[in-house]
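User: I'm preparing a small set of examples for a lab meeting where we compare how different chains pack in three dimensions. I only have the primary sequence for this one, and I'd like the structure in token form so I can line it up with the others. Please keep the answer compact; I'll paste it straight into my notes.
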Amino acid sequence: MFLKSLRNKWKQYRSMRAVAPSENDKVLSDSQVEQYLLHFFKNLENERCSNAKTSDPWEAPKLTIEEQYIQYKRNLRVMKECVGFTTERKPSLIPGGGTGVFVTEGEVPQGTVVSMYPGTIYRPGEPVLLQSLANPFIFRCIDAVLLDGNDKNISKFIYKSCGQRDRHGPYLTCDLTWVTPNPVNPLAVGQYVNNQSKQFPANVAYQEFDIPLEFPFHLRKYIPNINYSSSIQDGLTEQRLTRVVVLVSLRRIEQGEELFSSYFTVVH
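Assistant: Understood. Below is the structure token output for the 268-residue chain.
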């Protein structure tokens, strides 16, 4: 009975949707998503290099709250210059909806990556039961891969631990700052996009994408996802792709609008 109760609670709090697996059913092709992320990450990296004398933004615990905020605002400016809009977390328009994500500057064209769903990646069979309890940020992909986008409690510590585990010396392979109020990658707020309603129809759709192995190593520190299991198995390095989920605009979204998705989105 206890395990049955835990399973029921897990089902209650996880976010699920169904997506046709065909590449033709995606709003954007995988190559378009990859080129978009490359372009955006390169601009963030150029900004970081141009301010090389400042503290490293990934060493967030060593930065003051004010320094983290300044870095965040600087990267929002990069986002505006790079893609023409910015998105930020604010109180939702839905009564009792908690935090939502809004377009705070510019306009989002139709068919554009607006946000990324951050979190720890769990493959089928990997332990996620305890993390899923009372956790509304568990996202289930079409192939049963789960993303835990909770930036608090045990989920936060697991993500940071896995991210530090997989770093190569001083070089990170994922973004550790999305669990803070001031993420280095401003796209990494997609877990706070609220579900649609009759009053607020969906204006974005989820789309899965596996980061290719040849993705530039120095830009991986902007990816807000990490695999739960180590890539080193039995002393051998296993090449494992990093799953990301992007949110793509279904129509033009104007400044001031809140983003709304469907947890049961079907992409045609």
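A couple of notes for your slides: The longest helix spans residues 30-50. DSSP finds five helices and 13 strands in the chain.

User: Perfect, thanks.
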